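dumping this here before i forget
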Amino acid sequence: MIRNMLKIRSLLLVILISATSIQAQKMSVGYIYPAGAERGATAELVVGGLNVNKATSVIVSGRGVKAEIIKPTEEEQTSFKKKKFRKLDDQSSPQLADQLNIRITIDKNAEPGLRDLRLQSPVGISNKLNFEVGQYPNVTETGVSTLIINPNFVEKLPAVLCGQILPGETDYFSFRAEKGITLVASVKARALVPFIADAVPGWFQSVISLKNIKGKEVAYCDDFRYNVDPTIILKVPENDTYTLSIHDAIYRGREDFTYRIELGEIPFVQSVYPAAGKVGKKTELTFTGVNLKSNKLSFKPENEGYNTVKAIGLNAEISNSVPFWGVSKSTNLLLNEKTKLQINDNQVIFDTLDLKNRSKQYLYLADANETVTFVVMARRIGSLLDGRLRLFDEFGKQLAEADDLEDDMQGLMTFHADPQLTYTFKITGRYYLQVEDVLDNRGSDYFYVLEKKKVTLPFEVFVSPATLSVPRGGTSIFTVTINSKEKLNKPIELNLSGLPFGTKLSNLKLFSGSKKKEVSVTIPEGSREGNYDLKLSASLFDSKNQSDGKSQNAVAADEMMQAFYYHHNIPAAGFSLEVTPKAPFRIEFPGHLYNGSEYQISFAEGDTTISIPVRIKRNPDFKETIELSVYPKNRNIVMDAVKVFPGETEKTLTISVRSRDVLKQKKIKYGIAIVGTVSGEIDKRGKRILENAAYREMSPLIMITRD
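structure:
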C-alpha cells in the first residue's frame, strides 16, 4: 500500500510539472554522493539534480576545501544522452535525472564538519546541500549486498560508511570488533538532505541494526534521542565479525537517500552540562559521552545565543558538536541554584529537573498591568525536556499555561517542544512560575534556560537565497521573509551592507503588514568579480519614523519543501554575493524612472494597462533573440511574452491589470521585474519536454504605484 501511494504521488508530481509542455528550468542540486571525504584527501563525487550538468564551477563554504568540475569525455557525453530516463514505478524523480562529476581536495588541517556546497552556472547559483569534511577514510558500498552474500567488508576502523538506498534495499557492512571496546555507529542521512519535497515522511528515515556472526541482533536504533538520524553506542560483547545494516523505515529509496555512518571506537558526545555560559567568560563543562580523552572542558563562548562545543577523542579526534547557549556579559547568570529562586530583570536561570524534582517553581513579583514574557530554551539547546509552563497566583490558582511554541529559526527541528508564556498581570502581587516536563520525565539531561523578557522581538527575518549571483552590470532578486507570532502594525526598515560601491537597490524602503518582500540588486559594470559578505538587518519604526531599537539581523537561509506542502527555511553559512562575469545582455529601465531609491512608475485610477519602457543592452557579438516576460507571474498583473530580435534595443511593454480588487484600490504599490530568457537546448524526457535557458537575466524591480 505504501509503495502504491508513493507511485501515485510521483505520478501526480510529473502530471503537475507536465502541465506546461515547454518550460525553462533552473539548476537544482538533489544529492551529493558520496556526501563527504576525509581531511587531506582528494575525492571524486557525483552531484545529482536538475540541470547540474550546466554548472561551470563549484562553491564550498569555509576554508580548506577546493572543488572543480570533471569534464566528461565525448564518449561519456554520448552515453549519457542515450541513457533511458526513469520510469514512474522506481520511486525516482525527474528532478534527479542529471549528473555532474566533481573533484574535491581537502586540506589536512581543514575544520571537520558540514559545509554548504553549491553549483554556479551562467543562469545563476543553485540551492545548497551539505557536504562533510570528515576525519576517517571513506568506505563506499559496492554493488548489491545481503546479510549472507557479499556484504561490504570494512578492513579497518574507524571508517565512514557511504552509500545510497534504492527502493526496497538494505545495505550491509561487515567488520571485526574486539570485546570491551565502546563501538559507535552514528548516521548522517537527514543531516545531508534535510527535506525531500516529494516524499512522506519528507526525509530519509534511516534505521540501523547490528548483528553478530550468528545473525543475532545485538543493537538497533531508528531515532537517537530527539534526532531523526540514528546512533548506536555498544560495549562490544565478544571478539567477533559484526554486520551493520541500514535501510529506510518503510523501505523507500532513490538516489537522494544518501548516508554517511561514522563507525568505530570514536568520540561521541550525547550532552554537555551546563549548556549555557557567559560570552567571553570560561565555563567549566562536563560531557556525557563515550571514547572521550576527558569529559571536562573549559569553554569560552564567542556569540550570544547559539554556539557549538566539541570534545576530544582518545586519539585526538574531534567529536560531534552539541549546542551551547551564550548569555550576554551584562546579564546575571544563575547556574542550578539550590535555593528557591526569584525571577528578576536582567537575569538568566540555567536549571534542571533532576530526579528529586518533578517540577520547579520560581517567584515573580509583578506590578499591576505589567506584561511579561517567560521563555524556556531546552530542546533547542540539546535538552530532552518537553517543557510546559504554568503560572499561579499566591493562592495556587492557575492563571495561564503554555506548551509548545514553533520556532521558525529552527528549520531542522521536527518537534518544537519549548514553551513561551506571555501574561498581563491585573494586580500587584506574588506569582509563581512552574517549569515541568509534559511526560513527567526527569534527569540530568532535562535542563533548560529560563528568562523573563518584558519586551520580546516580535519577528524573525530570513533572507534567501543565501548566495546571490549577479553578473557585472546585471541584476538579481532576493526575498526577505518576516515571520511573526503577532500582527505587526509598525513599518520595518531593511538595511543591507557589504555591497560593491555604486550598487542600486530597489524596494528596500519601509514596509508594513507584509510577510514577504522582494528586493533587486543591480551591480555596477565595473565591480570586482568574486565573493562579498553581506549583512541584512531589519528594524521596527514608529509613526514618527523613529527606530524603537528592535533590530534583528536576518538569517541567511535556503527554502526547502517537505512532503509536497510544508516550507522550511534552512540556515546557511551566511549571506553572500557572488559577482560573476558580465552577461551577454542586460535589461534596464530609463534613468528618469529611478527616484533615488527605487524604480517607479505611476498607475492612474481607471487605467487597466501600464506601459513600461525597457532598454536591452547587448554585447556587440550577441545576436540571439530574447524573450521578455513578467516576474512574478500572477493572475492580477499579466503580460504576454514579447520577443526582442537581434538589432532591437528598446521595447515598450504593456502590463494588463485584470483584478477588479486591484483596480478599486486607491493606494497601490506592487513590484515587478522583467525577465529576459534566451532559449537553450530542448530536452525530451518521456512525456516531459524541458527547454533549458541558455541565459536568463532580470531587470531591477520597478514599483507600480498609485497614491
